[in-house]
Design brief:
The chain is of the alpha/beta class. Helix content is 56%, strand content 11%. The chain is built from seven helices and four strands; from the N terminus they run αβαααββαααβ. Strands 3-2-1-4 form a four-stranded mixed beta sheet, with helices on both faces. A hairpin with a 4-residue loop joins β2 and β3. The radius of gyration is 24 Å and the shape is elongated. It starts with 7 loop residues before the first helix and ends with a strand. The model has no long low-confidence stretch (mean pLDDT 88).
Amino acid sequence: MTSRPLNEADHTRIAEAIRDAERRTSGEIYAVLARRSDSYFYVAGFTVACGILLAAVLVAVAAHWYWYTIPLPVFGIAILAAFLAAVLVLWLFPSVTMWLVPRRIRYKRAHLNAIQQFLARNVHRTSERTGVLLFVSLAERYAEVIADAGINAKVNQDEWNGIVVILTNHAERDDLASGFVKAIEKSGSLLEEHFPVSAQDMNELDDHLVEL
């Protein structure tokens, strides 16, 4: 996904899109962008350690097969050196860790971050339970829409999946700001259909994009 940081104009566009959408509905839309949802240092370290141990076993079997003697202290030091070098690379170049973490784990961590943001930003505390979180985590190439209980009872999950596609497609094209704007417009239309604005409506959540 895109690595280009969003500028002030992008934030202004997104904030205006949220305000425009919420003028037509009693629902609340909240947007969060995370650069990554976890460091994955220990997960990647475990993967590297397993790889080094497997390589060590293969080297030991090959040495035995070809009658080549490796002194045990030298063999142990070589394994330790390889592990320390790998850990140093992971420490200095965090982007490398993403190549060593299974997609299932990346998605699980990103989903957990989305849930945490939904709760931490009080999207679940709206008076009519009509809050919606639009969440993107770039490093994991992950997007999710989390709707509160009042909305889920009326809006089909396929509708939210379509919004996720909008976010991911625009992120891949390095146009994440437009992706958020279109996702917000689509979310606003869905909310307007089921939760039109009322005379007693009040703005309960901040109208801006949060970057983590």
